[in-house]
Design goal:
This protein is mainly α. The protein is 77% helix and 1% strand. The chain is elongated and about 90 Å long.
């Protein structure tokens, strides 16, 4: 299999190259932790301190590895990185993880240390050279030490009150950035498209025409809502987060809200399609009421009354207009 890849295999690396790989990996992990710290510093300062401390730990291990390399092999460290070795554990891009929230960053940090420890343990078991086996075992122990150090840092900087406060802040940002604009889009898409879709349905009894009108109304409303949400607030003062994220949430949910009761009209039978569409409308409206109750703390019956009654009136208006 080695002939099908230009990357080196771990078993083919010399002890010097293994040590160089460990050094570059420590450098990368320290850089990742500092990136996480900067990402979190404004909103979650206590968690930022944890990642600052973890970066310092990585720097200490890197310094020890460099000292060992200098002692055994001299000052020139071969250039070898994760991407040069087939099967070596990879790190997810920082931009991908940092946009997924505080809990996801914490989980990723724990996985980083566990992956590194497991890799070195597995490599040590497969090694037949005593010195290489010892080297890999030491690296595994170092990674395990990172995890214990991380636990100590969490205890030092992130007590229960601080964690609870940061969790509340993360939940609030999730609500403002994703749930609120998504809910507004779902409501707009589900309710505003009822009248045109059912008006066309009852006026023409043509399922394909009804589907096309529903598709156009849903996509058009989604684009409009997405751009409106993104342009209305840059999030700097309101703390509502990235306008792009809010625009995407609003636009996608608006489109889905309309498509929910447009897609049944792909069925050729008018009454079958209409019956399914009405059932979907009923489910959509109650789902909106549940989301309002679950995330926006709106009393369920009040939310249900507002949403279901409003939706029913728009639906009735569409049917009456189409039937007339």
């Amino acid at each position: 299999m080695r002939y099908f890849t230009q990357r080196r295999h771990f078993k083919d690396l010399s002890e010097q190259e293994v040590l160089a790989l460990a050094i570059s990996s420590e450098e990368d992990d320290a850089r990742i932790y500092r990136s996480y710290a900067e990402r979190l510093r404004a909103d979650f300062p206590d968690s930022a301190k944890v990642f600052d401390g973890m970066a310092v730990e990585e720097d200490g291990h890197r310094a020890s590895l460099i000292a060992l390399h200098r002692k055994r092999f001299g000052d020139v460290i071969p250039l070898i990185r994760r991407e040069h070795v087939a099967g070596y554990y990879a790190r997810r891009p920082v931009w991908l993880i940092e946009n997924l929230g505080l809990d996801r960053i914490r989980d990723e940090a724990a996985a980083m240390e566990a992956d590194a420890e497991q890799f070195y343990l597995t490599a040590a078991k497969r090694s037949t050279d005593a010195e290489t086996r010892k080297l890999l075992g030491d690296l595994a122990a170092a990674e395990a030490g990172h995890q214990h150090a991380a636990d100590r840092l969490v205890e030092q900087h992130l007590n229960d009150d601080a964690r609870a406060e940061e969790d509340r802040g993360a939940h609030r940002k999730f609500i403002l950035t994703w749930v609120q604009p998504g809910l507004a889009g779902l409501m707009d898409g589900s309710v505003s498209t009822l009248a045109p879709i059912f008006a066309v349905a009852f006026a023409t009894h043509d399922t394909w025409t009804t589907f096309l009108v529903g598709l156009a109304a849903s996509v058009g409303a989604g684009i409009s809502m997405g751009f409106t949400e993104a342009a209305s607030d840059d999030g700097e003062l309101s703390g509502r987060g990235s306008p792009i994220k809010r625009g995407v949430a609003s636009g996608v949910m608006t489109t889905l809200g309309g498509l929910g009761h447009a897609l049944p009209y792909l069925i050729p039978s008018f009454w079958t399609a209409t019956t399914i569409a009405i059932i979907i409308v009923f489910v959509e409206l109650w789902a909106i009421a549940w989301i309002q109750n679950r995330y926006m703390q709106t009393p369920f019956f009040r939310a249900a009354f507002q949403v279901v009654l409003g939706g029913a009136l728009v639906f009735a208006a569409g049917v009456l207009i189409g039937s007339g």
